Amino acid sequence: MVGRLLMNNLVSLLMKSFFEFYTLKGVFKMKIAVLYGGTSNEREVSLNSGKGIIHALKSKGHEVIGIDFHPNRLEEIIHLKDEAIDMVFIGLHGRYGEDGRVQGLLDMLGLNYVGSNVLASALAMDKQRAKIFFKEAGIPVAKDRLVQKKTFNKATFSVPFEFPIVVKPNHEGSTIGLTIASNEHELIEGIEKAFLHDEEVLVEEFIKGRELTVAVMGDFGKEKSLPIIEIISKNELYDYEAKYAPGMSEHIVPAPLDEAVSEKIKRYAVLAHQAIGCEVYSRVDFLLKENKEPIILEVNTLPGMTETSLFPDAAKVIGLSYADMIEQFIQLSLRK
Predict the structure, then answer these.
(1) Is 48 a residue of the active site?
(2) Are 72 and 319 in contact (CB under 8 A)?
(3) Which residue of the set 298, 313, 324, 327 is catalytic?
(4) In the prediction, which pLDDT does 88 show?
């Protein structure tokens, strides 16, 4: 037990040293715009992420402009070009933020921004197509079928795997529109419910296992994984309430795992991040089956950044405060 604690402490020190090594010394103060809010179903989470990011940047001495983003007010973004902005920090979640659209706009304006580019953002948001890249990289994925609203016929629809079946919008996050179907009637209802949120629905085999997530950050091609977090939900599923309501989930970090299993999951996390071309940081979600086989769920290019979110929890374990973590993202983005 003592040996394991010493090993965990050593790993934390090494991880902290790695990120400190890659931080620019004599950091200069910058003018940074923070985009938050947005119009997706994850707006409330983004508002909280934005507040945390703005406070952290100001604590580091940066000049900060906060923008509650809306696609009908793009002139607020366009005007940033005249504001001598050094960097844009995207604190948005979900559509019109996490899916590459904002990144494309910023690219056209010639504005630097934190995080992944257009293609990586769009791929990560497309759960089914991202899985093709994960599978190609050798990362285990769940069996699935993509359902298109334009061609869906409930009278002839069938799936080649057994119940229960997971049904979810292909381009949503935070388990929005998700159903666990235990029979054909619930399956069809779940698909129609998911179509209210997306034109494409992902139907997957149900995987029973432990909820794990891995934060990844670093320079392109040199990324490292942070300690794995296990999520214990108070609800049967790790749903929207369990993710964001106070006291509805517990984060255990580092997760109690065999060393070999832990290293495999960390390696898969970095591989997934790199497979779709992510930059600076991401968070990769897994389910760990009873036979200790990890199954990847998705990559989040703009994970929650509230003071109590998962990524900051992992950073804290390696000695990075919330403000230091946000500063790391800025410094890594300057070197993209």
Answers:
(1) no
(2) no
(3) 298
(4) 98
Active-site residue flag, 59: no
The 3-class secondary structure across the chain, one letter per residue, is CHHHHHHHHHHHHHHHHHHHHCCCCCCCCCEEEEEEECCCCCHHHHHHHHHHHHHHHHHCCCEEEEEEECHHHCHHHHHHHHCCCCEEEECCCCCCCCCCHHHHHHHHHCCCECCCCHHHHHHHHCHHHHHHHHHHCCCCCCCEEEEECCCCCCCCCCCCCCCCEEEEECCCCCCCCCEEECCHHHHHHHHHHHCCCCCEEEEEECCCCEEEEEEEEECCCCCEECCCEEEEECCCCCCHHHHHCCCCEEEECCCCCCHHHHHHHHHHHHHHHHHCCCCEEEEEEEEECCCCCEEEEEEECCCCCCCCCHHHHHHHHCCCCHHHHHHHHHHHHHCC
For residue 23, name the pLDDT band (cuts at 50, 70, 90).
very low
Q: Is 244 a catalytic residue?
A: yes
- Of the residues 98, 223, 285, 324, only one is catalytic, namely 285
pLDDT of residue 41: 86
Specify whether 285 is catalytic.
yes
Structure tokens at 209: 């296992």
Question: Is 304 part of the annotated catalytic residue set?
Answer: yes
**β pairing state of 179-181 and 165-169:** antiparallel
For residue 104, indicate whether it is catalytic.
no
300 is an active site residue? yes
Catalytic residue among 282, 283, 309, 324: 283
pLDDT digits (tens, 9 = 90+) for 198-228: 999 999 999 999 999 999 999 999 999 999 9
**Residues 309-335, mean pLDDT to the nearest whole number:** 96
Give the end-to-end CA distance of the chain in Å, rounded to a whole number: 41
